[in-house]
C-alpha cells in the first residue's frame, strides 16, 4: 500500500496556537517510525498540515543531473527537496537588488555540513561564481573542492586554503577586492552590482568557521572584523560570505553583536543540532522567535528495544539522516528538507569521482583581473599558511629610534585604508619559518642595495630580478607602506 494521508489541523479558537510533539503524535496515530510523518505549521501557528507517508519520504533524495545545480534566473540554487517533492532552494544572489547573500550552515558534527557545502560549492562553480574557500579542518572537509594553482588553471574553487593563516589571507584578499570594486563602481557611477557585467559574483566560504571565531582562537578579532565588513559592505558589491559551523561553539560568534545581527539577516540552514545548540540559536536570535522545529533524529527508521534474549534479532545498521535540514529562509521553513544524496555509496580511495562530476570539468570563475594588482601575491600564487599570511599582512617595521611601541607586530585594531598593514596577532607563530623570504624582506633587500631613491615600479623590477618567485606591484606597494618609518 502506498497511500499518502494528509490531515489539516486548525486551532479551535482564534488566538490559540498549535503545539505538538512529533513522537507523541506518531504514537497517537499508531506510527512507529516518526520519519513517516511530516508536520508543517503556518507562521501564526494556527494551522498545521500533517502528512503521513507509507515510508520515510526523505530516504532517497537523488539529483538527476548535476546541471540542475545551476543558479536560476532569480539567483537561487536547487539544493535538495522537501517531503512532498517540492524543491528546496537557496538564494545566492538577488538580481533585483543586485545583492550577494550571507549563508549560514549550522549543524552538529556529522550532520552533513561539509557535504551540503560541496553541493553549494559545485552549484557555485557551475553558476560562474568565484569561490574563495577555506577549510579549517586541514582540507579534510571537502577534498574534491580543490583550488586552482594559478590564474586560468583547473580547479573546483578559485582558491582553497586549509589553515587559519590562509583564511586570514583570504579574508583580506576578499576585502581588498571589495574595496577595489567600491572604488571602481563609484567611478562608473554605478549603484548596484550586476553579475558578470563585468565582474563575477564572489563568495568567501569558511568551513569549520567555529575554529576561527571561537574564544581563544588566534585571529578571532581580526577575522570578526573582516567577516563583519564583508557581510555589511559586500552585499551590494557582489561579494557574499558563507560560514559552515557547529553553532554551539559559536557562543560568542567572534564576541560581536554586530556580527550576530548581520548573520541574522542571512540565509540560515539548520542541519541536525544538539539541544545546547538549539538554545544558543534561539537566544542569539538566529532563529525567528516562535519558530517550532521538530528535532532531526540521528537515525531514520524505527528504533526499537531489543531484548538480550532475542536471538532472532539482526543487528543491521539503521540508515542515517545526514543532510536532513531546515531551510529557515526558504519557502517552507518549518518543513524538513534533505540535501541531495551525493557521492559514491562506498568511500572511494582519493577523490570521489561522483562528487567531482558535480563540479564538472574545467577552470572555475576567478576574481577579476582588474583587482589582481591590488590584491597581490597571496591570491596570484594561491598561497596558504604563514606564507599567505605574510604576503597579506606584512609585519610593520619597528622604528630605528625604538619608538615602534616595542612590539613590532603586536595586536592592534585593524580596518584602516586599503594598503594599511593589518595587525599581526600576538600569538602569531613566529618560529615557523616561511618557505621563502617574505616580499617585505625582498623589498628591504632591494632598498638596502640602492642609495638612490626608487619608485615602486623600479623596486618591482628589481625584486622580480632577484631570482625568487615573481611578485605583483600591489604586493610591493603593500610591503612599502609597512617599511616606511
Ligand atoms: N547529502 C549527503 N549525501 C550523502 N551522504 C551524506 C550527505 N550528507 C552527509 N553525508 C554522509 O555523512 C557523513 C558526514 O557528513 P559531513 O562530513 O558532511 O558532516 P559535517 O557536519 O561536516 O561533520 P563534521 O562536523 O565532522 O565536519 C559524510 O561522510 C557522508 O557519508
Ligand atoms: Mg565538516
Q: Could you explain how this protein is built, in words?
A:
The chain is α/β, with parallel strands linked by helices and 485 residues long. The chain has 3 domains: 48 residues, no CATH class; 277 residues, P-loop containing nucleotide triphosphate hydrolases (Rossmann fold, 3-Layer(aba) Sandwich), CATH 3.40.50; 90 residues, no CATH class. Helices cover 28% and strands 15% of the residues. Strand 2 and strand 3 form a beta hairpin. Helix 5 runs parallel beside helix 6 and helix 13 packs across helix 14. Bound molecules: adenosine-5'-triphosphate (ATP) and magnesium ion. The site of adenosine-5'-triphosphate has 17 residues, from helix 2. Adenosine-5'-triphosphate (ATP) binds next to helix 2.
Give me some keywords for this one:
485 residues; alpha/beta; Rossmann fold; ten-stranded mixed β-sheet; 15 strands; elongated; binds adenosine-5'-triphosphate; binds magnesium ion; ATP binding; ATP-binding; ATP-binding protein; P-loop_NTPase
Measured between the Cα atoms of the first and last residue, the distance is 81 Å
Q: Helices and strands, in N-to-C order?
A: EHEEEEEEEHEEHEHHEHEHEEHHHHHHH
CATH level 4 superfamily of the largest domain: P-loop containing nucleotide triphosphate hydrolases
- What is the CATH first-level class name of the largest domain? Alpha Beta
Q: How many domains in all?
A: 3
The name CATH uses for the topology of the largest domain is: Rossmann fold
| SS-based class | alpha/beta
Unique ligands? adenosine-5'-triphosphate, magnesium ion
* Shape estimate: elongated
